[in-house]
TrEMBL record:
Protein family per UniProt: Belongs to the RutC family.
One Pfam family recorded for the sequence: Ribonuc_L-PSP
Keyword line: Hydrolase
Domain of life of the source: Bacteria
Protein name in UniProt: Rid family detoxifying hydrolase
SUPFAM superfamilies on file: YjgF-like (SSF55298)
InterPro entries membership: RidA, RutC-like_sf, YjgF/YER057c/UK114
MF term (GO), any: hydrolase activity
Coiled coil residues, start to end: none
PANTHER family the record matches: 2-IMINOBUTANOATE/2-IMINOPROPANOATE DEAMINASE RIDA, 2-IMINOBUTANOATE_2-IMINOPROPANOATE DEAMINASE
Length: 128
């Protein structure tokens, strides 16, 4: 699968580790449910710390991507949910470490609550 990165100077440039849009050729599309920072073995939050929850949520998402037969570079769209948008920079930094370039399209949403008191959730669309 080869995704095609869409960029135009007629719209604002990406302000973080994401692409304006991604076109995916015909293939199997996998819609991943949101992942929060739960430890797989216990079902409990990995920590009350924001960064630890973000890293665990991405690790959980990565495990689901692999289980679907995919790779992180096949993600075409991410949606991030944060209970505190002032921590957006931390998420950008962690995401840039984990997700390979060229980055997928992305949306970020501020929410009042997430399941189990989590502070961060990530969901993805993957094209195999």
């Amino acid at each position: 699968m080869s995704k095609r990165i869409i960029h135009t100077d007629a719209a604002p440039a990406a302000v973080g580790p994401y692409s304006q849009a991604v076109a995916a050729p015909a293939g199997t599309t996998v819609y991943l449910s949101g992942q929060i920072g739960l430890e797989p073995g216990t079902g409990e939050l990995v920590s009350q710390g924001f960064e630890a929850q973000v890293r665990q949520a991405f690790a959980n998402m990565s495990a689901v991507v692999e289980a679907a037969g995919g790779r992180l570079d096949q993600i075409v769209k991410l949606t991030l949910f944060l209970t505190d948008l002032s921590k957006f920079g931390t998420v950008n930094q962690i995401m840039a470490e984990i997700i390979p370039q060229p980055f997928p399209a992305r949306s970020t949403v501020g929410v009042s609550q997430l399941p189990k008191g989590a502070q961060f959730e990530v969901e993805a669309v993957l094209v195999l």
